[in-house]
Amino acid sequence: MQAIKKATLKHLFVFASLIVGMLVIVFVMGQFVSLHEDAYVDGLMSIVYVYAIILALHIAFGLFRTFTASKELRIAQWPKRLIGWYRSVSPLVLFAVIFSFITLVNSLMMVTGLDTPKTGVFTYQHLLIRALIVTLVVALTMHRHLLAWFRGLKRLTAQT
Fold first, then answer.
1. Distance between terminal CA atoms of the chain?
2. pLDDT tens digit string along 51-75?
3. pTM metric for this prediction
4. Is 91 exposed, middle or buried (0-12, 13-18, 19+ CB in 10 A)?
5. Looking at the predicted structure, is the pLDDT value of residue 116 above 70?
6. 86 CB neighbour count, 10 Å cutoff
C-alpha cells in the first residue's frame, strides 16, 4: 500500500509540474505572439491525453506483473525487458521515440476529427511546445541518467 501512495504522489507531482510548466510557457509565448484561441485548451489536453496513456500503461504493467508471476510465460518478461531498455537507452533516444509516438497519435487524432488540425504559425508553436513537454517528461523521469550523461560529457571535454 505504501508503494501505491508513493507512486501516486510521484505521478501527481509530475502531472502538476507539466501542467504548470505548460501554462507558464503558453502565457509567456502569448506576450510575444498572438495565440490561437484554443492554445491553453490544446496545451492542457495534450498533457492530459498523453498522461492518461502513461498512467494506463503503468497500471496495465502493474496488473500484468501481479497476475503473471509465473516464469513459464515468456510474455511476462516484457515489462522487465521494456524497463531494461528504458534504463539502457540515452535520453536523446527516449526523447525521439516519445516525440514520434505522440506526434503519430496526435496526427491520428486530427485525421479522425478528435482534435482540431493546426494551421499556420500555431503549427510550429504546437510542435515546439510538444518538444518542450517531452523534454520535461524525459528530464523528470531520467534525471539520474541525465546527470550521469552530463558528468561523462564534462569528463570527455576536460580530457580533450
1. 50
2. 887 788 777 777 776 776 655 556 5
3. 0.53
4. middle
5. yes
6. 13
